[in-house]
Amino acid sequence: MGLKLPSWWCSGTGSRLLPLPDCLFCDLPVSGSTPHTGAAACNSCLASLPWVDPEQPGEWGETSALYYRSPVRELVLAAKRGQGLQQLYLLAELTRIGLQPRLQERPQAIIPVPLHPERLRSRGYNQALELVRPLARALALPVLPHAVLRTHRTRDQKSLSAQARQHNMQAAFRLPAALPLQHVAIFDDVITTGVTCHALRKTLLDGGIRRVDIWTCATTKY
Ligand SMILES: [Zn+2]
Questions:
Q1: In the sheet that 109-112 helps form, which strands lie side by side, from edge to edge?
Q2: Domain boundaries, given as residue ranges, for the chain
Q3: How far is the CA of 29 from the centre of ligand 1 (A)?
Q4: For the chain, which residues score pLDDT lower than 50?
Q5: Assigned architecture for domain 52-219
Q6: Which of 66, 75, 201, 215 is 20 to 30 A from 41 in CA distance terms?
């Protein structure tokens, strides 16, 4: 009698050696018939996520994969707090799924919104960098996490008025060296007021880059 393998073992494409994971939303096993995304989410949960309509341009000119609503909000918060690598990987995969078909003109590189070095040290990773990796890989684009420096902490943004936020952000970024690029995309996990992304875009435009697109995993706008 041969070894009896569970059905999920044989249900993938043949290249998968590890068991398929359970869906992070509903806890059911991810079916082998999932058009394979690599994401630990089942087809029906993927379909019911708050995807941004591909025709919808963002208020800030940004392109976002998802609306910042439950269950995306919980995933983003978990990814930010380092509560689960699986959540971070799933969100990164959702970012790729949502953005890849919508990007028409390829930039030359992707710049994740940098964290201030102190915050990077305490968190241990930059979630924007981790979230954009699968998309960058799929598009064969370089990611430049050190192209821009965050020169001061903007921890208290939430308590500030929109105008004060803008002022607070104005000097937040600096280019340590000129970038020999014409067109880049900046990437952040969530766009809320747009102030951070716009401050970074301005720094890059002032540095001589002609076109700066804004891509995000999630948006609170529209
Ligand atoms: Zn599910």
A1: 62-67, 211-219, 183-191, 109-112
A2: 52-219
A3: 8
A4: 1-16, 33-37
A5: 3-Layer(aba) Sandwich (3.40)
A6: 215
